[in-house]
Amino acid sequence: MFDRYILRLLFFSIISSVSLSILAQDEVTPTSPPYLSGVGLNKNHFFRFNNDIKLSFDVSIQKGYEEYLEYLVRIVDINKQEVNVILSIQDDTPSELLIISKDKLSRRTVGITKDELQKTFIPFNFLIDLKSDQLTIGVRDTVLIENRLGLKPHTDYKITLGTLKNSNRGNQSITSSLKLSNISSDPDLLEQKKTEQGENSILLWIIIIVVLDIFIFAYIIIQKRKQKKLRQAEEMDNEKEPGDEDIIFYPEIDLDEIIKRDRSAIFLFKQFEVLDKEGKDISFRFTPLLKELFLLLLLYSQKNSKGISTGLLKDILWFDKEQQSANNNRAVNIGKLKGILDTVGGYEIISNPHNIRIEFKDDIYCDYIRIISLLSHESLNKEQILELVAIVRRGAFLPESNYEWLDPFKAEVSDKLIDNLLNLAKLPNIMGDNKLLVQIADTIFNLDSLNENALAIKCIALTNMGKRSMANISYNRFVKDYESMYGTPYVVSFSEMMKSNKS
Description:
Elements (H helix, E strand, L loop, with lengths): L1 H25 L11 E3 L6 E3 L2 E10 L6 E10 L4 E8 L6 E6 L2 E6 L4 H6 L2 E8 L4 E6 L2 E6 L7 E8 L15 E9 L10 H42 L5 H4 L7 H5 L4 E4 L5 E3 L12 H16 L4 E2 H8 L5 H19 L5 E5 L3 E6 L3 E3 H10 L5 H12 L13 H19 L2 H4 L2 H14 L4 H13 L3 H19 L7 H8 L2
Parallel strand pairs: 13-18
Antiparallel strand pairs: 1-11, 2-11, 3-8, 3-12, 4-5, 4-11, 5-6, 6-7, 8-9, 9-10, 13-14, 15-17, 16-17
Helix pairs in contact: 1-3, 6-8, 10-13, 11-13, 13-14, 14-15
């Protein structure tokens, strides 16, 4: 009985396929070149966008030109405000992207030669975040980020790829040099092939009839399998949950390997740790006072080029001392601190009556300083993203230090890291790397153990890798931790989360 239903379903599917093929043969499909020079998305009409716009296409250029200056992407809103991304290529100079909006011009080197673009197609990916007013461009392993362009959510935009020009023959879109191929967008704004109204009507009725028949027979099959799936789900829930070592199926990132460390180091993530020139841990030499003094100098020097004021230093460490006594204590403890740091590497403590700061030479690696440097970059390649993940995967920022003045630093670094990691996970060239997405999600969990965006990223990536059971385990653990923390159940089901977040 069950096999008969499957055969009938297959029969109707074959009829549907044959009917669609016959109609497809009757369609008038205009011939087109293997590439386009200009594309007006959504038939070159305005379209309401809510939050994100994703574009991807491959770019090449025709030979025969000494210099190239071509539009890649043009974004025009209903008020005629424009954001333009222009490809500039000249002989003997690196290619650039010119990003123009209102009175703002940014020049970004993309490292692609004229010869490369003439010989092959180079993939470009664009993520237009209207809510954050941010444009992210991915070219190979390079990521460029541009902010404050005047983009707004829930606004009508017209988007053009390449340069649209009217030839003397109709309205064919051509350009003199740019070639575009493999164009895709999300939401889908590409023009579809036109068919006559009569053909569309016939096709629609055939599809309706066939789909209804398929659903009738598929319903019976689904009911037969439903009980089996429920039993399997119950068995899976009753299985013993594996330990973390079973879930971390990807290789751990080795921070020492990434930074190729042959120098002393200062680590603030996971725990406070200082290694001298020989690689020995000398953290024990820092008394509680010296440790807090050192952290004040380090963190405030990264926040402000002047460092920390002597008045604030007194208020934090020697609030109960007279000014002269506080000055003496400061001088004595800075002398002790120098004695320790001399064994670490090159540094300089610069002080005056009003401020004091510390600077480190290149022979000392500090994970916090490196994090600040990476977060200040407007573009990160994959190696830098891996280093960022490797640092934070070690653990939270100074988790064992509970100074009142430290709380704003902890909040700021955590918020910046989470925001940047979530933005990186949205990039087209990162979204295809599921193993890296799992590591990014776990990194965010180190900073915020109940981050719902990280949960969605991890579960989708695991599912895409064929590890749905691990995705379910991660989700169930999150639900338990959420209820334990907030005292209320997590209301978003696994299927709802996957459906609402999967692109």
